[in-house]
Amino acid sequence: MAEIEIDPTLAPVIARTGDERAVLEAFLDFHRSMVLRKVRGLSEVDAARRLVPSSTTLAGLVKHLTLIEWNWFHALLDPGPGEVFVTSEEDAEASFALADGDTVAELATAYERACARSRELAARFDLDHVVPQPQLGEVSLRWILVHMIEETARHVGHADILRELTDGSTGAV
Q1: What CATH number did the domain enclosing 118 receive?
Q2: Is the dihedral of CA 172, 38, 66, 91 positive or negative?
Q3: Per DSSP, what are the bridge partners of residue 137?
Q4: Model's pTM, two decimal places?
Q5: In which residue ranges of the chain is pLDDT below 50?
Q6: What is the dihedral of CA 121, 5, 157, 16, to 10 degrees?
Q7: Structurally, how many domains does the chain consist of?
Q8: Which residues of 131-151 are buried (b: 16+ CB within 10 A; e: fewer)?
Q9: pLDDT attached to residue 55
Q10: 145 Ramachandran zone, left/alpha/beta (phi>0; psi -120 to 50)
Q11: Which residues pair with 139 in a beta bridge?
């Protein structure tokens, strides 16, 4: 039997009586899907356009959040040899920078892959699972999920403003 795919915008509503993990994952997936909705349908020029004094762009937000997914899930829960958590503010800021040839489609695909990998890694552990984190000492998977909801939602707010400035589109759907 084929698995039914649920529209991520409905996930928080569906999980409204779910357990803690279902609720946390539903809200994180909701915000992840909003990031992608904010860049879909934009030209490469519009997605890379700077509309605020900082270097933040819609495409840059997707690129940055791809690193954030890798950092909080892969680097902490399943690091390979030599892979370390990015702690430098400078490196985090640089992750917004677009390289020549970066396309919205490629950035969105990389983000979707990073999110899928994050889901796979998180599924291996209980919410109480604790890992070392270089700046905080230790963090639980529960804390990582809540932090990622906050981080992703904050950037979705930025994306919403940038998209509105680009073509007037607003909202979650």
Answers
A1: 1.20.120.450
A2: negative
A3: 133
A4: 0.90
A5: none
A6: -90
A7: 1
A8: bebeeeeebebbbbbbbbbeb
A9: 87
A10: alpha
A11: 131
